[in-house]
Write a structure and sequence with these properties.
The protein is an alpha/beta fold. It has 14 helices and eleven strands. The strands form two sheets. Strands 1-2-4-3-5-11-6 form a seven-stranded mixed sheet, sandwiched between helices. The chain binds zinc ion.
């Protein structure tokens, strides 16, 4: 054979191998899906929030261990973070998993609001599905590795506390992604699409004011109210809003407003989230919020301390990985929902205000608008949304952003809920525990597994994704949103 024939032969062999493997993966996931649906329902039942996902992390890590993965628990000084590895050598392909629920959103698997009385929290962002699709994909790819069809290192990253704890940002800070070549990620949603948009960077901090207590009626002049400081800081921040960039956001809650109105509160606390299009912009705005806090302390003769809770970066896109995901979504899609699932979606759709999805996604261009218009009367959309590269920043944040700054990473979404289902809602909890969510999860597992196999078998694809990553990063160094010395905010759950 001359060199060109050899090259052709090799290319055909690789293509056939990949094709064979992806078909094999599809069958394997279909044959084994009952087991993974059961695992997902188990995580749904645990419904554990930020940093206390002890049962969930243990359960998932245990399943991977049973399958021959080597598990390292408690990474990045977080008891519920873990890494499971299989194989050795290059390339190192990572699949990210999450498993944290949201507080106070307990809900049964029915299309109307019904709290499970024995449970407080609920999987209102579908992270039971997110974590288990990744686990399912890893075990499917491992089967192919075991047969000697693929070589390299496969890793499952067990990432806790996505909902406000920034587990991944701490894992990045601990250097746990430094040797990874490609990271793959997905998220449940109400459409099958590539996540091409940007997210907001943020910083999350507590402002704790200290004053002096006194009898609120007898000698208030001796008191210095920490609550006054909290309130004045909030007022100052609300004036600041007019003079900040339009794509920034500030939100707060009062976490401690004192004990009783007849006592001048010596202690009071607020919890702030400052968001912006980049970490740099967040820092600029945060410094101004800090000045407002100083002003409030000066006015009330109180002092304050700042306690860092979490921080997240905006998302760096990787169009090379996005194109691989797109090919796989088309290969394994669309999702076929059955009559019962359509009925459930129709019912649940009646429980939330008619969301104009076009308002949110219309910015992606005419093809997406047309796609959504044609399906505006459908409760469930199983088709694949047209692909559109976008640099638009959507109002929300994720710690996946931090991983995207240190390793080439992309995400896709699959339909796990009726169109327009509000995020972080009881409706998401309900759908993530039944057929609709399960189908989206199994579909996601196939896309993840088959994409991972492409990166294992096509070194040029890894090279291309890495070159693209380097180009984005060249003049943009990664600034960790975690201040030096800050630890994961576990204290809040210790009592
Ligand atoms: Zn989420």
């Amino acid at each position: 054979m001359d060199n060109y024939s050899k090259f052709l032969h090799f290319t055909i062999f690789l293509n056939e191998k990949t094709r064979f493997l992806s078909m094999d993966i599809n069958n394997w996931i279909e044959e084994n899906k009952a087991k993974y649906i059961e695992i997902s329902d188990k995580i749904w039942d645990f419904s554990e929030i930020n940093f206390i996902e002890f049962q969930s992390a243990q359960f998932l890590a245990g399943k991977l261990e049973e399958e021959g993965f080597t598990v390292e628990r408690g990474v990045a000084e977080i008891p519920t973070a873990f890494i499971a590895s299989y194989g050795s050598g290059d390339p190192i392909i990572a699949i990210l998993g999450e498993y944290d629920a949201l507080p106070g959103l307990s809900q049964d698997k029915v299309p109307y609001k019904k709290k499970i009385e024995t449970r407080e929290h609920g999987h209102a962002c579908g992270h039971n599905l997110l974590g288990v699709a990744g686990l399912n994909a890893c075990i499917a790819v491992k089967e192919a590795m075991k047969r000697g069809e693929i070589s390299g290192t496969l890793r499952y990253y067990g990432c806790p506390a996505e909902e406000g704890g920034a587990g991944k940002t701490f894992m990045v800070k601990a250097g746990l992604f430094n040797d990874v070549d490609i990271a793959l990620c997905w998220h449940p949603d109400s459409f099958n699409a590539i996540w091409t948009m940007n997210c907001m960077a943020n910083t999350m901090v507590y402002f704790k004011f200290h004053g002096r207590t006194a009898h609120a009626a007898a000698d208030p002049y001796n008191g210095r109210s920490a609550l006054d400081a909290v309130e004045l800081m909030n007022v100052g921040t609300n004036y600041l809003r007019e003079h900040m960039i339009p794509d920034a956001r500030i939100h707060y809650i009062i976490t401690n407003g004192g004990q009783a109105p007849n006592i001048v509160p010596a202690e009071a606390e607020s919890y702030y989230i400052v968001r912006g299009p980049t970490t740099e912009k967040v820092h600029e705005l945060y410094k101004r919020v800090l000045k407002v806090a100083e002003g409030a302390a000066l006015m009330t003769e109180t002092t304050f301390e700042v306690k860092f809770a979490a921080g997240m970066s905006n998302l760096l896109p990787n169009r090379t990985i996005e194109r691989v995901f797109l090919k796989k979504l088309k290969e394994f899609g669309p999702i076929e929902f059955n009559a019962e699932e359509h009925k459930f979606a129709e019912e649940i759709k009646k429980t939330f205000p008619k969301a104009d999805v076009l308002d949110l996604l219309g910015i992606l261009g005419p093809e997406v608008v047309e796609f959504l218009k044609q399906r505006k009367d459908q409760a469930l959309i199983g088709d694949i949304m047209p692909y559109k590269e976008s640099s638009i920043t959507i109002p929300g944040s994720t710690d996946v952003g931090d991983v995207s700054w240190v390793v080439p990473l992309s995400q896709f979404t699959t339909t796990c809920a009726a169109m327009g289902t509000p995020g972080h809602s009881w409706q998401t909890v309900a759908q993530g525990g039944m057929g609709i969510g399960h189908k989206g999860m199994i579909f996601a597992a196939k896309v993840l597994a088959s994409s991972a196999i492409d990166f294992f078998t096509k070194p040029n694809l890894v090279k291309e994704a890495k070159e693209e990553f380097q180009k984005h990063r060249k003049d943009n160094p990664y600034i960790s949103p975690i201040p030096e010395g800050a630890k994961p905010f576990l204290e809040q759950y210790k009592n």
